[in-house]
Amino acid sequence: MEKKLLMPKLRPEMEKAVLCAWLKEVGDEIKSGEPVYEIETDKVVTQVESSYDGVLKSKLYEEGDTVDVLLPVALVEEKQEAV
Question: What is the domain extent for residue 42?
Answer without folding.
Answer: 2-78
